[in-house]
Amino acid sequence: ETVKSKYHNLLSVQHPRVKLLEYRHQQQNTFKPEEILYKTLGFSVARETSSLISAGKGVFVTRGWVPKGAVVSMYPGTVYQKYEPIFFQSIGNPFIFRCLDGVLIDGNDKGISKVVYRSCNGRDRLGPFKMSDSTWLTSEICNPLAVGQYVNNCSNDRAANVCYQEFDVPAVFPIELKQYLPNIAYSCDKQSPLRCVILVALRDIKQGEELFSNYYTIV
Questions:
Q1: pTM of the predicted model, to two decimals?
Q2: How many Cα atoms occupy the beta-carbon half-sphere of 168 within 13 Å?
Q3: By residue range, what is the domain housing residue 163?
Q4: Cα of 2 vs its chain's centroid, Å
Q5: CB half-sphere exposure, 20, CA atoms < 13 A
Q6: CA pair distance 38, 42, nearest whole angstrom
Q7: From 11-25, 37-51, 73-87, 159-173, the region with the lowest mean pLDDT
Q8: Fewer beta carbons within 10 Å, N or C terminal of the chain?
Q9: Is residue 110 part of a domain?
């Protein structure tokens, strides 16, 4: 609402064209996705080098703090039903998430997985509306929550502070907001709800903490 009101104010003021363009440029610089996330939910998350040795990237709370029960990230990727082919995409791929009912989500942002997701994204576009967010495949992420595939597994000395929650996107979900969902169905033949997986905070998580999940705990 804060962002919307600023745009309304912009439209109501008659500026010379040059000043108007400069003002819009300033607005774009001010309202970056991570800034909007922080202003809206009181925290922001990002990928950084993990605190675990040889774990590669991890996800950290970079600003603010996450209250218990809050959605702290989303698991992006192509959604495969149990009977759909994923053999070649799965070779050497550590980012495949298996849901309780056997549905698979391929969260790899490289190689053939990246090509498949982008292909499905272009296939499902409805006029001016995008049916999913593909920016998580780039460095310019539109939905800063779409980093859940980089959350590392907990260990004996690093307890889990987030857990996985599966859900199906309801049919009444606004079509203009689907451009922010970082998931897409592999097949368009069968009309079934889109499966999404989010990570929920098990406790309050402070700024600077890394997110850890239990790979075997799915709600």
A1: 0.84
A2: 10
A3: 31-218
A4: 22
A5: 10
A6: 5
A7: 11-25
A8: N
A9: yes
Residue 1 lies in a domain: no
Taking Cα atoms as reference points, which of 64, 67, 51 lies closest to residue 151? 51
CA-nearest of 145, 148, 163, 150 to 218 is: 163
In a domain, 170, yes or no: yes
CATH number at 206 reads 2.170.270.10
**Tens digits of residue pLDDT in 159-199:** 999 999 999 999 999 999 999 999 999 998 777 899 999 99
Beta strands 71-74 and 195-201 are: antiparallel
| Count of structural domains within the chain | 1
- Rounded to the nearest 5 degrees, what angle is found at the Cα of 13, between the Cα atoms of 9 and 17? 120
Helix 2-12 vs helix 17-30: crossing angle, to nearest 10? 170
Angstrom CA distances, 209 to 80, 85, 103, 204, stand at: 32, 37, 30, 10
Asked if 149 and 97 touch (Cβ cutoff 8 Å), the reply is yes
Backbone angles phi, psi at 73, to 5 degrees: -170, 170
Does some domain include residue 7?
no
Provide the b/e sequence for 60-81 (b: ≥16 CB within 10 Å). Answer: bbbbbebeeebebbbbbbbbbb
DSSP of 109-132, one letter per residue? -SHHHHHHHHHHHHHT-BTTB-SS
